[in-house]
Design a protein that fits this description.
Order of helices and strands: EHEEHHEEH
Oligomer: single chain
Number of strands: 5
CATH topology: Alpha-Beta Plaits
Distance between the termini: 31 Å
Helix content: 25-40%
Number of domains: 1
Shape: globular
Radius of gyration: 15 Å
Number of helices: 4
CATH architecture: 2-Layer Sandwich
CATH class: Alpha Beta
């Protein structure tokens, strides 16, 4: 059984998914998913099936699985996704709370699930980074050992 990295992020939309303010973002979703599928280290996207975190219709969840943290970081910030990410303020509001969590799990091919992912995000919000849920700025290896990351790799999206 492989140990993989799970990544949850929640973005709070400026309007509903069909609001004109979201049109450019919605139009880019398929191409970003295709890019992820071609990216080194990508394993899969976990379908959200209409999941609404905390019952909030403007909270847009994204749950993905990766082989390692470097592959996820490269996709997030150094690929065409990074260009889209840099425009996020057009479509999303700052949540004022933890909105991204990473964690390692034993991948049997059917996880992780959104309820556990939200639980981990809430744990990160309440307790800070740990092997249970961490950030790019304070990552952990597959054995739960903190990894030292150069300061230039710390992203403003981290909670720490």
């Amino acid at each position: 059984m492989a140990r993989h990295l799970a990544q949850l992020n929640i973005a709070w939309m400026r309007g509903s998914i069909d609001d004109p303010v979201m049109a450019d973002f919605v139009g880019a979703i398929d191409s970003v998913h295709k890019l992820a599928g071609r990216s080194p280290g990508f394993v899969r996207i976990v379908p959200d099936n209409g999941y609404q975190p905390w019952g909030d219709p403007k909270a847009l969840p994204n749950l993905t699985v990766w082989e390692d943290i470097n592959s996820l970081r490269d996709f997030t910030y150094r690929s065409a996704h990074g260009n889209l990410f840099s425009k996020r303020d057009k479509w999303f509001v700052s949540p004022g709370r933890a909105h991204m969590a990473l964690w390692w799990f034993d991948d049997t091919g059917d996880g992780p699930d959104y309820d556990d992912a939200i639980r981990r995000l809430d744990h990160l919000q309440q307790n800070g980074p740990s092997p249970e849920a961490f950030t790019f700025g304070q990552p952990y290896d597959v054995d739960g050992v903190p990894l030292g990351m150069p300061s230039e790799n710390r992203m403003k999206t981290d909670v720490d």
